[in-house]
Amino acid sequence: MTGISVAFGGVKALTDVSLTVEPGQVHGLIGPNGAGKTTMFNVACGLVRATEGRIVWRGQELRRLRPAQLAGLGIARTLQGVGLFPGLTVLENVMVGAHKHAKAGFFSALFAIPTADKDDARLRERAMGALTELDAEGYAARYPGSLPYPVQKRVALARALVSEPELLLLDEPASGLSEDEMHELGELIRLLSGRMSVLLVEHHMDLVMRVCDQITVLDSGRQIAAGTPQQVQNDPAVTEAYLGDAVDDTTDVSELAGTDGGTHRG
Ligand SMILES: Nc1ncnc2c1ncn2[C@@H]1O[C@H](COP(=O)(O)OP(=O)(O)OP(=O)(O)O)[C@@H](O)[C@H]1O
């Protein structure tokens, strides 16, 4: 993504931001509240159109990117919150994520079109595989509303993984997780980077510092730093940006602890 600017009416949410997620790398996008992280993420998903700038994927410029195109491009995403279909079981929810691989099957079934049983079986198998990878196979027959939030988040991630994306876009995947769950999530993201690239928008500094290969830091819609976790941690502009944020919002002081000393690095 190069030279991305976004304006909402008179508000400049992003000004000339560039970042490249390299193959097999985890790229973190961080910044204080209102920095523009979600807007940048939404540009990458096709949910927000950039006022200026270019998105290039696999050597091709994506003009007028729409969210519906992502799966076909080998890109999957999870959004803030969970977004599972309450009327479908966990397994069915994950099968929705696999639909680009199915010629017939689950979707034909949804719309009462005659199904190809083989496709359906393959889809189920892939969806169960993704659930197993996330230790959630035991919940396959349950409905999302009956499950604890962290489990719902794992299911949402399984749904993104089942399409075997080349690029996984994660928007605040650690929100609402305990320390232990966050640690597991970090290990999982590292594991996933062996077979896909990851763009990670996240508030939890210790997670970001532990799992990312490269980090881009935004503040007030502008890129203020970029580099390895160590480079970013040692950048005075970053500390300053977070200090300003901590003064505005005292609840963020604990997060600040991870940005200054390096003690959270794994
Ligand atoms: N749809 C919108 N309409 C108008 N302004 C918006 C819209 N979305 C975002 N903004 C503004 O753009 C700026 C960047 O917001 P954004 O949500 O991208 O930041 P963020 O870094 O994700 O913040 P947070 O960490 O609080 O989620 C903010 O000033 C915000 O108020």
Automatic annotation (TrEMBL):
The lineage of its organism: Bacteria, Bacillati, Actinomycetota, Actinomycetes, Geodermatophilales. GO terms for cellular component: plasma membrane. It comes from the Bacteria. The keyword Ion transport does not apply. Keywords: ATP-binding, Nucleotide-binding, Transport. It holds the Pfam family ABC_tran. This is Branched-chain amino acid transport system ATP-binding protein. SUPFAM superfamilies: P-loop containing nucleoside triphosphate hydrolases.
